[in-house]
Design goal:
The chain is globular. Helix 4 links the parallel strand 2 (73-77) and strand 3. The chain has 18 helices and 13 strands. The chain has a domain at 15-254 and 485-498: Amidase signature (AS) enzymes, CATH 3.90.1300. The protein has 507 residues and is α/β, with parallel strands linked by helices.
């Protein structure tokens, strides 16, 4: 019998190769889990909010390595649900709440996939921000450079996978929450067609655009996760049937001749210096390597980030119930501000206009995909910015001071209360105030503006690593037609093969 290799650190390849090593007797699930737990314990990334060491070791000991992810240490996004584990929504408000049920996708990953669940990975509070900074868990750091953001809301999952702690983590994407962290950490991040992976048994109303998935080091890991987690669930009436051959079908598409539109600033988002040039070079190299064909196309899309944020954050008031507004001090400043902003400015007129913008996006994207087969765009406006910031770089020190200083925040709360009263006499006031704010402070709507459009439209999209700008990763976003998930995966696979990104991870 071949001797099992003893390791002091977790596996640095993808999850599929780890399972292969198990089956060949080259690694042991027990040894791997012990290395994983030790690495988590010494990591300064702050990407796990909860670790169940006893359950993880027991799962490793009982691992069936014949299963797709048999014995693979896996993290679960904090906003997901595992019975008996904390169910905090990454918020101090619910710090003592314990989960009563397990999400369907997590159950499938554990039972059908055989993954050994380690614990919960940090996320943004209620999934409401594109950064992973909370009062409950603190700041999550980027493995590429400590002190830089990992994005959000699936930031802890991205940090754990890119940081070499685990090979796979669950994630969810309601406005870019898989793709944004993937872009910042050099991972492959895939959002399937709406309903591809069920959201049951707790059918979330916030946000209604959310799609479940994972963060992974390879395309085949993502495809195998689809084989395990996708498929109809009666608890989620929007969930789709699954063909169940996602991994087996990888590479089955002939990409030659496919029409590609390169639209880097999709959604009217301003990119930072160097980003467009880096993405254009990567896109052109991928097109040349695969025989795809770049075509001229254009589409004008409204930036939906502000309306998306206000509409979804406003639903938190119902979730918080009688706790609001007394719980305001326990909330992340940005979430509290978002709640007060929504309460003051988000009225029926704005909701109607937001719906009109949504329909505009779907119609224009529908027409665009009659002309092209794929769209290439930026994933994020720039590389990772300082981890404690709420906004995209470059930092706005004045804005940061205003948003954090107690006196200025009191003034803002008073102004919002006044605006709420004024809206009763001037229905257009909220809209005008929001427009004025976003024009003066464009960073408030920059993050997520590139990704939200595919959540609204419901089509598959992925972020693939596209090199670095200033030594930090940037992602090239690939958008496809509805239900052409397999094609988007194959584009990622082609990039992985023709323009290989480093499989190594930074610790």
């Amino acid at each position: 019998m071949q001797a099992v290799a003893v390791t002091d650190e977790p596996w640095k390849g993808d999850a599929c190769s780890l399972v292969e090593a198990y089956r060949a007797g080259e690694r042991s699930p027990r040894e791997e889990m012990e290395a994983t737990l030790a690495a988590i314990g010494t990591s300064d990334l702050n990407c796990f909010s909860f670790v169940d060491a006893d359950a993880a070791l027991a799962a490793a000991d009982a691992a069936d390595v014949s299963l797709p992810f048999g014995g693979v240490p896996a993290g679960v996004k904090e906003l997901d649900h595992v019975a008996g584990w904390p169910d905090t929504a990454a918020s101090l408000v619910f710090k003592d709440r314990i989960g009563k049920e397990t999400s369907t996708s997590v159950q499938r990953l554990r039972d059908k996939g055989g993954a050994a669940l380690v614990g919960l990975t940090n996320a943004s509070e209620f999934g409401g921000l594109n950064v992973s900074v909370t009062k409950l868990n603190g700041v999550t750091h980027n493995p590429w450079q400590h002190g830089r953001t990992v994005g959000g809301s699936s930031g802890g999952s991205a940090a754990a996978v890119a940081g070499g702690l685990v090979t796979l983590c669950t994630a969810a994407d309601g406005g870019g929450s898989i793709r944004i962290p993937a872009g910042y950490t050099g991972l492959f991040g895939f959002k399937g067609t709406y309903g591809r992976i069920p959201r049951g048994p707790a059918a979330y109303s916030r946000p209604s655009t959310e799609v479940f998935g994972c963060l992974a080091r390879s395309v085949r890991d993502t495809a195998r996760h689809l084989d395990v987690a996708a498929g109809f669930d009666p608890h989620d009436p929007w969930s789709l049937p699954s063909k169940g051959t996602w991994e087996a079908d990888l590479g089955s598409h002939d990409l030659s001749g496919l029409r590609v539109a390169f639209l880097p600033n999709l959604g009217d988002v301003e990119l930072e210096p160097g980003v467009e040039d880096r993405l254009r070079a990567h896109a052109e190299a991928l097109i040349a390597a695969t025989g795809m064909r770049q075509v001229e196309a254009s589409v004008e899309l409204p930036n939906l980030a502000a309306e998306w944020m206000m509409g979804n954050v406003s639903t938190l008031i119902a979730e918080l119930g009688d706790r609001w507004p007394d719980c305001a001090e326990d909330l992340t400043d940005a979430i509290e501000d978002g709640l007060r902003l929504s309460q003051s400015l988000y009225n029926l007129r704005m909701a109607a206009e937001a719906e009109a913008k949504r329909l505009t996006v779907t119609r224009r994207l529908g027409r665009l995909f009659e002309e092209v087969d794929l769209v290439f765009a930026a994933t994020n406006p720039g590389p990772a910015f300082p981890a404690e910031q709420q906004m995209s770089s470059p930092p706005h020190k004045v804005i940061d001071t205003v948003m954090t200083h107690p006196a200025s925040r009191a003034v803002i709360r008073g102004a919002l209360a006044t605006a709420r009263i004024g809206a009763g006499f001037a229905p257009n006031l909220p809209k005008n105030l929001l427009n004025a704010t976003t024009k003066r402070i464009p960073d408030l709507v920059n993050m997520g503006g590139l990704t939200i459009v595919s959540n609204v439209y419901g089509n598959p999209a992925a972020s693939i690593p596209a090199g670095t700008v200033g030594g930090l990763p940037v992602g090239l976003q690939v958008l496809g037609r509805h239900h052409e998930d397999a094609l988007v995966l194959d584009v990622g696979l082609a990039a992985e093969r023709e323009l290989p990104w480093p499989m190594h991870v930074r610790v």
